[in-house]
Amino acid sequence: MTVHLSNTSLFRKDAFINGTWCPAAGGARRPLHNPATGAVVAEVAECGAPDVDHAIAAAVTAQAEWRNRTGAQLQVILTRWHDLVMDNVDDLATLIVTEQGKPRAEAAGEIRYAASFLLWFAAEAMRAYGDVIPPTNPATRLSVIRQPVGVCAAITPWNFPAAMITRKAGPALAAGCAMIVKPSEDTPLTALALAELARQAGVPAGLLQVLPGDGVTLGKALCASPDIRKLSFTGSTQVGRILMAQSAATLKRLSLELGGNAPFIVFDDAHIEQAIKSAIAAKYRNAGQTCVCANRILVQDSIYDEFATRFARVVEKLQVGPGSDPDSVIGPLISAKARDKVEEHVNDAVSHGAIIMCGGARDNAGELFYRPTVLRDATPAMRIAHEETFGPVAPLFRFHTEAEAIAMANDTEYGLAAYFFTRDHARAHRVAEALEYGMVGHNTGLISNEVAPFGGIKQSGMGREGSRYGMDEYMEMKYICTDITDHTA
Ligand code: SIN
Question: Which terminus of the chain, N or C, has fewer Cβ atoms within 10 Å?
Answer without folding.
Answer: C
